[in-house]
Each structure stands twice: as structure tokens, then as C-alpha cells.
Design a protein that fits this description.
Layout (H helix, E strand, L loop, with lengths): L6 E2 L2 E3 H4 L5 E10 L2 E4 L1 E2 L13 E5 L2 E10 L3 E5 L11 E6 L1 H25 L3 E7 L2 E7 L7 H14 L4 E7 H4 L19 E7 L3 E4 L13 E9 L4 E9 L1
Parallel strand pairs: 2-5
Antiparallel strand pairs: 1-2, 3-4, 3-9, 6-7, 6-9, 7-8, 10-11, 11-16, 12-13, 13-14, 15-16
Helix pairs in contact: 2-3
Amino acid sequence: MSMGTHHHGRTARLELRDQTLREWDAVVLDAGPEGIILDRSAFYPGGGGQPPDLGVLLWQGVQTRIAGVRKGDDLVLIPAEGDPVPPVGTSVRGAVEDERRTALMRTHSGLHLLCGVVFRDYGCLVTGGNMEPLTARMDFDLREVPPGFKQTVEDACNKEVEADRRIDVRTLPRAEAFEIPDIVRTATNLVPPEVEDVRIVDIVGLDTQADGGTHVGSTRQIGRITVAKVENKGRGFRRLRIKISD
């Protein structure tokens, strides 16, 4: 039975409802050295190019470090090697490592902003992307690189940062979502057919796309975007490397 987009298996995904949440209470449903399953979690499990969160579980005066997350039938939190694992039924306090998550949110929003600018100004689709905190790459299908492209794109991106556009996240039924023009910016549609509700990230007035990641609340919160490099990967594929700074 589908429990809607805010669940994965038995776990309520709190980070999709509230992207600012960093601490919460939960109960252990399943546990072993291979992984821990909670009834509620705000650990982003990774996906869409955004790496998983890191953090800790605190219980009965003990700390279990969370070194990663994987999506199986349930959302599985991976304990750091050698750390004690809370028994089933234990009440725990979860905490996401804030600095990393906030940096990833700024970076992910920065990539959407870049994607919106390049689509608006050059009409190019995205062919791939990847991010680490405050550094990322995005690949575009761009046959010809116009003169001054790198600086022009960087300036256009920072203009959108300054514009302080709102970033709204909402969920729409699939049919309704796909009525939005250009909702899928990737050259291949990555939304699986069985997904009934589609999460939409909207940089108001610039970019609207289907996305499952976490984002800041407005473009100014991204910070300064630097296009560090434009690489030619052959056959019209251009890789833009960006850095985000305060």
C-alpha cells in the first residue's frame, strides 16, 4: 500500500515536509549492524545527485553515528562500524549534521538555478549532474559554446541569486504535474511510471522541475555561484563545474 510521497516503506520522511528540521524523536522498528529502521527520519537518503545525510542517533546516553543511508524496502540508516546499535522498540533522538545538509541544500538549489538559467538563455537540456557540499557539476547538451559563455552564465546566475526568488516545494498528482511545460529538464525522464505523486521544486519565475531533493527557501540563501570550469566532453556535451560561496 502506498503511504504517499512522504513515506518510504515504514518510515515517515520528515525532511520532505520540513527541510529545516535537524532533530526529532523516533522509535526503532528494526535494527542490526547492517542498518537501523526508524518510524520517522529526516535523513535524506541520497538520490537525484544529492548525497545522503550524515548524523547521529542518541539513546539512553549512547551515541550511534549514522554513516550513510540506503533505500531498500525501507529506509535503512547505516551505523558507523563498531558503534552500538539501539534495540528494537528504543526511543531515539535523531540529528542530521547541519553544516553538511545546509551546504547540500544550497548546492542543490544552485544547480536548479543554473539549470533554469541555461534552459532559459540557451534552451539546453541536462544530461547529468553530481554534487558534494558547495561544489557540483552539471552536464548540458550544448552543441556550440558561444564566446564568453562561462562569464555570461555566472553573471546571469548571480543576478538570479540577488533577485531572491522564492523556492517553493509542492507535490502534485502525476497527471497534473506533467501538464506543466518542461517539467522534466533531463534529456531522459527520470520519474518512474509507478510514481503517483510528483514532487515539484519551483524557483518562482525562473525554473520549475520534478525533483526529490532538499532545497533552501530562496535563491539568496544559495550564496554566490562561481562557474569554475566549462569542459567539453565530446558530442555536444558540456560539463559546467560550479562552486558556491558565502
